Amino acid sequence: MADNNTQNSLSDRFRGFYPVVIDVETAGFDAKTNALLEIAAFTLKMNEQGWLIKDRSLHFHVDPFEGSILSPDALAFNGIDPTNPLRGAVSEYEALHAIFKMVRNGIKEQNCNRAIVVAHNAAFDHGFLMAACDRTGLKRNPFHPFATFDTAALSGLVLGQTVLAKACLTAGIAFDSSQAHSALYDTERTTELFCELVNRWKKLGGWPLTPDQQVKD
C-alpha cells in the first residue's frame, strides 16, 4: 500500500487529474452562439489528514462576445443584464487567462498532470468553457478536452438526488435558492458538495484503496 503521504496526495487521489470546480451563467444553451456571461472557478487541495477542501477561487462577469446571441428567456432566468455597467465585466480572454494561470499554478504545486472540470451537469459548463477558449485563441488550455467529474451523477449515486439544491440539502449543506443561478454561489455550493461526496467515500472506507484493490497503470 502507498504510504500515508501518498494517500493524502491530490495527484494520487484522481490519477494525476487536478479537479477544478466550474460554474457558468450564459445567455442560452448553445456554447457556440450564446454568450458566456459569468464564470467562477474553485481549486481544491487535500489537508494533512487527506480530506478534500477548498483552496483558491476566481470569479468574473463576462462581456458577451461579438455577434453572440442573447436569449431573452435565459436572461430572465438568471437575472443578468449584460448592458449594466455596474457588472464590471471583462472579456472572455481576460477571464480565462486569469483562471488558466491559477489552474496551471495549482497543477504544478500539486504535482498533477492536467486539470479536469468538476461541475453540476458538467457537459454544459465544460462546453461553454471550451467554446470560449476556442474563440479567444488562448494557448495551453490546462483542462482535459472531454473528461469531467459530474456532481449531478455522483449525487444521484450517493444521495439519490440530482438537482443541486436538493443534493446539497440532503448532504447537510445549506442552500439559499434566492442566491442560486449566480456563478459564484453555485460554484461554492458545488465545491462543498464535491468535497462532501469524496470525503464521505473516505469515511466509509472506500479510500485509500486496500492493496488488492490497487491497479497499476
Enumerate how many helices there are, as a single number.
Answer: 8
Helix content: 25-40%
Secondary-structure element pattern, one letter each: HHEEEHHEHEHHH
Q: Calculate the mean pLDDT score and round it.
A: 94
* Beta content: 15-25%
How can the largest sheet be summarized?
A: 5 strands, mixed
Oligomer: single chain
Count of individual beta strands: 5
Class per helix and strand makeup: alpha/beta
* Alpha-carbon Rg, integer: 18 Å
Can you tell me the residue ranges where pLDDT is under 50 for at least 5 consecutive residues? none
Tertiary shape? globular
Tell me the span between the first and last alpha carbons: 15 Å
Read across the widest sheet, the strand sequence of neighbours is 3-2-1-4-5
Description of the structure:
This protein starts with a helix and ends in a 14-residue tail after the last helix. It has helices spanning 4-7, 10-13, 72-78, 92-109, 122-136, 151-158, 164-170, 183-203; strands spanning 17-26, 36-46, 52-61, 114-119, 143-150. Helix 6 (151-158) crosses helix 8. Helix content is 39%, strand content 21%. Strand 2 (36-46) and strand 3 form a beta hairpin. By secondary structure, it is an alpha/beta fold. It has a 5-stranded mixed beta sheet, sandwiched between helices. The protein contains 8 helices and 5 strands. The mean pLDDT is 94.
